[in-house]
Amino acid sequence: MQIFWFFPTHGDGRYLGSPEGARTVDLDYLTQIARAADSLGFDGALIPTGRSCEDPWVTAATLIPATRKLKFLVAVRPGIMSPTVAARMASSFDRLSQGRLLVNVVAGGDPVELAGDGSWLSHDERYEAASEFLHIWKGVLAGDKVNLDGKHIKVSDAQLLYPPVSKPYPPLYFGGSSDAAHDLAAEHVDVYLSWGEPPAEVAKKIADVRARAAKLGRTVRFGIRLHIIVRETNAEAWAAAERLISRLDDATIANAQKTLARADSEGQRRMAALHGGSRDKLEISPNLWAGIGLVRGGAGTALVGDGPTVARRMQEYAELGIETFVFSGYPHLDEAYRVAELLFPHLPDRLKPSIGQQPAGEVMANQLLPNETRQAAAS
């Protein structure tokens, strides 16, 4: 079970849809999040992409020296990036970070944003272009000389002179819910990511991608993208969820849903269908809450509960085949610590502090806590 965190390069704060409690997302703040995720034992971190975000490659590169082991899940954008330029970027980043690059393939789902970036392809054409892109990208990173006269991309004698550390290339992650997306996942990617739908729906997607990959003689691993609200008790967690959307009014929700509805993304359609733009029934599955999707595009659901409860829900997804959980929480610096402190102790494969570095709490009256208390706190 791998646990990833998130860099909020599009903004952060305590309340959705409100400037109240908002934080300046600058290099200092992102560095704090990076160091926290690295030291707390998160395996990697996702950096979002799009015109509302800081550039993910520049952001990730600035955070390499602030971290030691943390891997960076960074987006490539078929259709608006050259595959060979993207391959050189990936190879350089992978070498300079000593093998800490993971690549997130983002075909895009907002026609307005894509048009602003010069891409006028239809939904299915974007996935055709992505397949050609990945054929070239994977080939040159693996050391091949690639020629392709494709429908959307043409290259002649494409090659890479400086190879990556990761062999044959940095692992490819990808999420999409349409037939075209599942075909792309089956043919090209290493890890298929689902947004946080109820387990029964995620199981259907896993089975479909797995079957399509098997027909091509491939295997695919699976992950899930979720927010998380974990507290010491379930009641506290649900209260925190309600606080997160407590500054939202109906007009803000309606405006956000109108903007999100222009997307031709099947995944976005499925996210919107979970709540229907209404606050009436946001717990769509036990401890799975759709409140964030009222105003946020993309991943819109959160696991809500105390540590043991959230761990059980994660295990339900793991039993379906989910190996990687990509989490986020508001605000991201604070919630990284909450997840590590309240959830990690209930996940059997999370690393515990080394001997001599167990958390012992504040020294009281010039004395350490009793040994048995320290041992219990570290167990």
Automatic annotation (TrEMBL):
Catalytic activity, EC: 1.14.14.5
Keywords: Flavoprotein, FMN, Monooxygenase, Oxidoreductase
InterPro entries found in the cross-reference section: Alkanesulphonate_mOase_FMN-dep, Luciferase-like_dom, Luciferase-like_sf, SsuD_RutA_monooxygenase
GO MF term set: alkanesulfonate monooxygenase activity
Reactions that this protein is recorded to catalyse: an alkanesulfonate + FMNH2 + O2 = an aldehyde + FMN + sulfite + H2O + 2 H(+)
Top-level lineage group: Bacteria
One GO term of the biological process aspect: alkanesulfonate catabolic process
Keyword Oxidoreductase assigned: yes
Annotated Luciferase-like domain residues: 1-323
Similarity remark: Belongs to the SsuD family.
Function: Catalyzes the desulfonation of aliphatic sulfonates.
NCBIfam families membership: alk_sulf_monoox, PRK00719.1
Name the record gives this protein: Alkanesulfonate monooxygenase
